[in-house]
Amino acid sequence: MTSASTVQRRLLHEGWSLRAVAGPVPAEVGDAAVPAVVPGVVHLDLMREGLIPDPYLDDNEALLAWIGLTDWTYETEFEVSADAVGGRRHELVFDGLDTVATVTLNGSEIARVQNQHRTHRIDVTGVLRAGTNHLVVAFRSPVKYADAQSLVYGPRPRPYPTPYEAIRKSACSFGWDWGIVTATSGIWRPVRLESWASARLGDVRVVATPAGDDGRVEVTACVSRADETPLRLVVDVAGASTAVGIPAGDTDATAVVELDHVERWWPAGHGAQPLYDVHVALQAGADTIDKTTRRVGFRTLCWEMTPDAAGTPFQLIVNGRPIFVKGVNWIPDDAFPSRVDRERYARRLGQARAAHVNLVRVWGGGVYESDDFYDVCDELGLLTWQDFLFACAAYPEEEPLRSEIAAEARQNVDRIAHHASLALLCGNNENIWGHEEWGWDELLDGRTWGEHYYRELLPAIVAERAPHVPYIPGSPFSPDEARHPNDEAHGSVHLWEQWNQRDWPTYREHTPRFVAEFGWQGPPAWSTLTRAVSDDPLTPESPGMIVHQKALDGNTKMSRGLVAHYRVPVEMGRWHWAMQLNQANAVTAALDWFRAHAPHTSGAIVWQLNDCWPVTSWAAIDGDGHEKPLFFALQNAFAPRVVVIEPDGDGLAAVLGNDTDEPWEGEVIVTRRDFDGGLLAQVRAAASLPPRTSQTLPIAATVATAGDAAAELLVVEALDTRGVWFFAEPRDSSLAAPRARVAVQPAGDGFDVTVTAEGLLRDATLLVDPLAPTARVDRGLVTLLPGEAAVFRVSGVDTLDADAAASVLRSGNELM
């Protein structure tokens, strides 16, 4: 039920069209009106109408570069009744305009905007009219605008050609070392008309705080007024309610609700995720004239950074419990983010949860994700580390950029700070490190580079708007500003030398306190690759493959990183598998090492979870949503209980990790075997791990020393959990060609595939995507001794037989 004073909100998503108005427009597009879907961007409309090819395929990216060099105009008409116009205030609200635009209504200019990351609220009370209203949003070329602004601000160091630091737009829309150049324009988030007579809710900030078994919810609301009507702010949570008056003339109010008993919210793997709806109503007399809802969870959270004997930790603590962070970095899940809806967030983040991830870092070169992203993270127990949107560049501190950054920061902190999942706000990605180490000072020649934002502006905004949310100035960072920002003994580090210059076993030379980035490249799933690249013949360096490899010397680095472990295959299918397997092995080695050094090392965030298009990259899930072998590396290394074998001085040690609430006790059996499965040496020990602890067991030299390194392995078994160690690299070993039996039987909504090893089978994996676009398998990278069997559950296929399953079975053996 509504009254005349109730706020009315009307989406304006119908009847839009767009046209090119200036730029290098091909004749087939011209200046004709094209039907436009809002929310959306120009590329998607042109593709929908058949005017351009899919930019994700082959070299279409280069063919479509003209789109980012063109000015585009969107327009629509909408009707408003005479009764709806009079006596009310009217505002147009754009939740996202990408990026530099002039907005006109009925021929009157009502706004000029220049920030993709802001909501723009425009008072149109004197411009809206009864009858037909004509709305136009005219976008400037983002590439030309960024270029022009770079001349205004002066040159700044950055890794890519387009001066993305000069425009408040997703940096990776201009391309990245995993990303396509799109340089989008469009109304990329919802637009609506809001009409109200007396007052409406503005910013609503909600903080939920536990106190023992009880809880406290504090709601601070800002009210926009059209008159001096006395108002009330009413807050309801879990059956408890409070109301406060807002006298005439006041525009702010705070209401507190005390709850007698609340359930704690926990990160994934540590407990449940109970959530509570906070209903906020603005009342005038007996009428509710506006309302909103926020969903909260009750937990305490901090990052421990008190110096200790080893340096400075960066230890996450939730509800008083130290949490080992099992993290992944997140980039926009589509180069056209308007295509990412709640269902897609739930699917992708659900995959992260299935890999035992408990934290997702939203990287600073993308976008502030939609409310759906943070809602799903709340539900799944996935903590979120949110970068402010600065990445790998020196940023001007001059106007108008400074004010735009302040406004976007306030809006987005207000929008997301109530989420139980929000664990950290971070000033930037690699900019402090870049200024310290990458020769920026000389290039800047005295110009500003963004330090004001990271050290002053952003922490002040967080302190004002969300003091309950921890803030750090950048990633990597040292809590002691006098130290190098990438000092592994202090705070968080990024480890990229392994990928760029060294081999992955050298991860074991580092014992960082916390790792916020590291990773290894591999190609996308075979079906993704062959859908996007139509090269004939398809080779690692064929033209389309190079288009879909954005990293500098990426293929060379992949080959250099493989050759110490396996020879680089000639045949394309085997090359593809070898690079995927090496990616998984590299990250496994790092994660096992970092976890073996917990709690000194308090967590690791892998670069990266996802892709935004079909590309060779560091992702565990490719641009079509297929899980690469790296996904199973995460799943295995992040499992609640693990057994890993690591170098320990001149010998080896077994490290047992118990990241559960239950003790882990029992016998540990350590054996050295030959590749035929024969027992060469054995030792038994007892292990007793309290909850959330690890234990290191040195392995006796009689077992840990190989007689024939090329033909032996070490196996540690503890309570149905296993770790293996090979004494020699595969290429230097006597690993034989794969021999296995495959059997299939229906099981539930899928099929159980039983793989029985007839010889030692290393890293057995089913690459199921060629079976069907929807195919999934529940595990991978399983090493089997002769005679052992493993069951893989395959879902998303209608039929499956042993021959088909055998055709997608891969192992390290086949690369010998």
TrEMBL record:
GO molecular function term, any single one: hydrolase activity
Q: What InterPro entries does its record include? A: Beta-gal/glucu_dom_sf, Beta-mannosidase-like_N2, Beta-mannosidase_GH2, Galactose-bd-like_sf, GH, Ig-like_fold, Ig-like_GH2
EC number(s) from the headed UniProt entry: 3.2.1.25
Name the coiled-coil region(s).
none
Gene3D superfamilies in the cross-refs? Galactose-binding domain-like, Glycosidases, Immunoglobulins
What are the record keywords, sorted? Glycosidase, Hydrolase
Q: Which residues form the Beta-mannosidase-like galactose-binding domain?
A: 28-189
Q: Quick check: keyword Glycoprotein in the entry?
A: no
Keyword Repressor set for record: no
The protein's name: beta-mannosidase
Origin, by domain of life?
A: Bacteria
Q: Where is the Glycoside hydrolase family 2 immunoglobulin-like beta-sandwich domain?
A: 207-299
**Which Pfam family, giving just one, matches this sequence?**
Glyco_hydro_2_N2
| Phylogenetic classification of the source organism | Bacteria, Bacillati, Actinomycetota, Actinomycetes, Micrococcales
In the record, the note on similarity to other proteins reads:
Belongs to the glycosyl hydrolase 2 family.
Query: Which reaction is catalysed here?
Result: Hydrolysis of terminal, non-reducing beta-D-mannose residues in beta-D-mannosides
